Each structure stands twice: as C-alpha cells, then as structure tokens.
Amino acid sequence: MQIIFNGFVTGIVVTLPALAITLLFGVLKFPNFAVGSMLTLAAYIVFTFNVLFGLSLLFSTIITAIIFGFLLILIDQLTFAKLRGSSSITLMVCSLGLGFVLENIARLMYGNNAKSFAIELARPFLFMDIRMNREQIVTIIVSTIAMIFMYVLLKHMPIGRAMRAVSDNPSLSLVRGIDSPLIIKWTWFISGALLTIGGVLIGMDRAIEPPMGSSYLIVIFAAAILGGLGSPLGAFVGSLIIGIVSELSTLVIPPNYRIGIPLAVIALILIFRPQGIFGKPNIKK
Amino acid sequence: MLSFIILMSLVICFSAILALALNFQWGLGGMINFGLAGLYALGAYACAILILKLNINFFWSTILSMLLVSLVCALISIVTLRVSEEDYFAIVTLGVGEMLRLIALNEDWLTGGALGLTGIPRPLSDSIPADIYIYVFLATYVFILLICIFLLNIIARSAFGRSMRAIREDDVVAVTLGKNLLWTRARIFAVGGLLIGLAGSMHAFYYQYIDPTQFSNIVVAYAIMAVIAGGKGSHFGVVIGSILIMILLEGSRFLKEIIPGLGSDQLSAVRIIIIGVGLILVLIYKPNGFVKEYRLNA
C-alpha cells in the first residue's frame, strides 16, 4: 500500500508537465523537448522569489506562473514562431537547442549545486497505515485543483474550446474565425503556469538543480504518450500509471534504472497501441 | 601550433564520421536520432571493454563494436513498426540514449562508472616509431574518413539509396510502390549504427580514456548542427559542416581570456548556450545548409 501511495504521488507530480506537453503538442503539432528545461528555469525563478526575496512559496509561485507565461510567449516569438509551418523534425531540433540554452542559463546564474525552497520541515504522519508527509499532501491537492481547473477551462470556456478546435483542425478553425496566433499564445501562457506549478512540486519532492527538468523529460513524455499525445485526460491517467508502475518496479530492478520503465512503456505502447489509451487513431492521408 | 592542428584534425575526423552517420539516418533516411550520444558511448565503451577486459586486438574490437551498435540501432527502428511519425521516433531514441548513458554511469564493474576506463592503447603503438606515430595515426583517420564518404556515396546512388529517399519524402507513397518500410528503415538505422560504432571506437583510441561526461547530449547538438550547416543529405557538405563546427567549438575555449571572471562551470555553461543559440539561428536562417544534396538530373 505504501508503495502504491508513493507511486501515486510520483505520478501525480508528473501530471501537470505532461498536460503542458500534451496541450503544446495538440496546438503546435510537435513534441517539445525544451519542456524539461523550461520546468527547471521556472523552478529557479520561484526559488529566486521565495528564498532570495523572502516571499511565501504560494505567492512566489503565483507571480512566477504569470511572469513565466509571458516569458514563454516571448521565447516562442523568438524561436518557434519563425519556424511555423516547417517540418516537425526542424521544430524538435529547435526545441532541443532551446532546452540546452535554458538549462545552462539556469546553471550560469545559480550554479551547479542543488537548492531547495524555504519551507519548514514537517514530520511525516500516518493515515490508514500509510506514511505520508506534508509535501505529498500539498502535491495531491494542488495537482487535483489544477486538473479540475484545466478540465473546466478546456471543456466549458471559450479559450479552451478554441484551443481544442485549433488542435483538432487548424485550417477549419481559421476559416471559422478563430485567431490561431492568439490561441497559440494562450497555450504557451497556460503551459507556462502548469510548468511553474510542476517545477515547484518536483522541486519540493527532490531538489532544485539544473538537470532536474531534463531528467524528468522521458517520464513526462511516457505519461503523455501512454495517455495518447494530445489528450488531456490521457495525460492524467498516463502519469498515474507510469508513477505507480515505476515505483513498483524498484522492488525488482535497481532504482538507478527507473527511467527504463517509462521507456519500456513507450516502446510497448508504440508497438501495440500507438494512439495511446485515450487517443484517436491517426490515419495518414 | 602544429601539434594543435594535428589534434584538431583527428577530432574532426571522428566527429565528421559521427555527423555522417546522423546524416545517413536523418538527412537521407528521414529518421531523426536523438540517442546519438548514448549510441556513440556504446561504440566507444564496447571497443574499450573488448580491448581492455577481453584482450581482443584493436581491429576486431572495432569491428565488433560497430556490429553491436548496428544491431542496437536496428532493434530501435523496429519500434516504428506501427507509427510512421518522426515525433515518436525522436522520443524513443532520446530515451534509449539516456538509458545507455545511465548504464555506462552505473555499471562500475564493467564500465568503471563515473571514473570511466583508462589506458586504452593506441593501435600498433609499439611497432611504429613514436616520433612519426602521430602522423601515421592522422593519415589513417583521414583515410578512414575518405573511405566512409566514398562508400556512402555509392550507397546513396544505389537502389537502396533511392528507396531511402523515397521513404523520407513520402512513406505512404513509397509503401504503395512496393517498398518494404520496416526493412528499409531497419537497414538505414543499421548502416548508420556501423558508422556510429566506428566513430565511437576512433574516439576511444584518440582520447585513450573514456568517461560518461564525454557523451552528454551536447554531442547530439554538435552532430545536428554539422548536418544542418553542411546541408542535409550531402556527404561532402556534412564534412565541411563538422570542420566549421569543430573550429567554432574549439575556438570557444578561448572565451576564458576574453570574458574575465568565469569559472570552469560557468564557462562550459556559456559554451553550451552558444551552441544552442547557434543551432536555433542556423535552423531559422540557413535551414538548407551550404552544399546541396546530390540529385540525378532528368
């Protein structure tokens, strides 16, 4: 039970970044490898407000989410916007380069040493024979709220409907008068907020260091692919499955190779059900 | 200065072969390989382990490491059995590369862990006089590079080369015309794997010690930049691209004298930032490279 609970938390940490990847993939149609480094940079910005300026963690996260959303729009304008319409390989390579740049900006400014947020330590407590600590509870609550908010946004708000329309059929939505450049900006903004929260949760769980985001990259992608790239609900379910399975796997394989599990999941999914659990089969015309 | 140029040329030789491998898989075959760094490490480690632990001579260990990398590459390509999008392929190769790097880092008994493997002997270093050895070594490396270009040119113009390009341009049409997609892709990746294994072995012989830090994902960025700058699909262009990139890279070591007050950590961060920015700029402003791909004229 303890292991399943730990796996549940490990998985839920990944849900928000996986959701960001899935949204970006839906609207921009390429897997963004810079997401890991973006998450790192966001965590460092929160760290700056939280530790260096002494603001509370909640308040710093909110400020950063907004700043980082605009920052991502700016980055998009400088890089991906100039390559719109090129093949997805070009965009992937661009995102890889961008990932190097962002990760090393963080390294240049904050050094290689691991940092942590200014939160007081609390003793773990027992609930129904499961040991849990406060960070895990916060993670579950925050992620759940964010997921519900995202569900409402995508399902019932004009922005969310427009985002789904653009990701479904870009040219048709353009004909119907949806301003797709604006929607792309919104997607980046929302992804920025999701990545900031994800960065804070991962930073609370582990530590803040330059490779933190890129080391999660494969896990995040595995979660998104398992659920079906482009499907928000899938990202959620996929993350939980990956979390629980990789936590269970440490019973049999050495923890150094935990990344092997998401990788094996990706390979199996691609061979047996390429569209993922909740994705629609993609027929090439 | 002369010895610096010789060492640079040696580095350029095996970097160019690595870039040629990527060019073969990606530029000609249309299959991006983000796991290049891990596969390169596999080639170097396999060669070093065969020499140091099993006492196989340098020739056969190079051949065996080439075959091993080639086999791994072919297995990776099977994952694309049902998906034809490059997107998934990029993610899978990235993951495999990361996994291989982790194995190199964690299996101390085999790979020496973070310390790496030291004392890899250079081939024939006892039968060639030491004072001319470095020239013979360089001549051999250049010769190997030329042979690779020659063979790749033959492959690119063969029937296999044509079906590769057909699949790159439009896999659905190529399959409709009776090309076997999976088999062709496996072969593209396997041939590329041979070259990666060769480059890895040459890397091991050159440095004589290997550790996991030499095979970070930056290697992928170098190779991609070399391929794009040189012109995707053109072997000659890719070699020129690698020369340019290597000069740029080695040149950036001198940044330390220009910008004072940089620690070695910060310096390496600045260099990687430069590489990343360079990659993005090349993609935006020079996406077709300097040399065009060989085409049959009608």
Descriptive report:
By secondary structure, chain A is mainly alpha-helical. Chain A has one domain. In chain A, 71% of the residues lie in helices and 2% in strands. The longest helix of chain A has 27 residues. Chain B has one domain. Chain B is globular, with a radius of gyration of 19 Å. Chain B starts with a helix and ends in a 13-residue tail after the last helix. Chains A and B meet through α4, α9 and α11 of A and α4, α10 and α13 of B.
Shape of chain B: globular
Low-confidence stretches of chain B: none
End-to-end distance of chain A:
47 Å
* Beta-strand residue percentage of chain A: under 5%
- Count the domains of chain B: 1
Please provide the ordered H/E string of secondary-structure elements of chain B.
HHHHHHHHHHHHH
Provide tags for this entry.
heterodimer; A: about 280 residues; two-stranded antiparallel sheet; 11 helices; about 70% helix; about 0% strand; B: about 300 residues; mainly alpha
Topology (elements, then pairings):
The complex is a heterodimer of chains A (285) and B (298).
Chain A: H1 2-28, H2 35-52, H3 57-78, H4 88-110, E1 125-127, E2 130-132, H5 134-156, H6 158-168, H7 170-175, H8 180-205, H9 212-227, H10 232-249, H11 260-272
Antiparallel strand pairs in A: 1-2
Helix pairs in contact in A: 1-5, 1-6, 1-8, 1-9, 1-10, 2-3, 2-4, 2-8, 2-9, 3-8, 5-6, 5-8, 6-8, 9-10, 9-11
Chain B: H1 2-28, H2 36-54, H3 58-78, H4 86-106, H5 108-111, H6 130-157, H7 159-169, H8 171-176, H9 181-207, H10 218-230, H11 235-251, H12 255-258, H13 264-285
Helix pairs in contact in B: 1-6, 1-9, 1-10, 1-11, 2-3, 2-4, 2-9, 3-9, 7-9, 10-11, 10-13
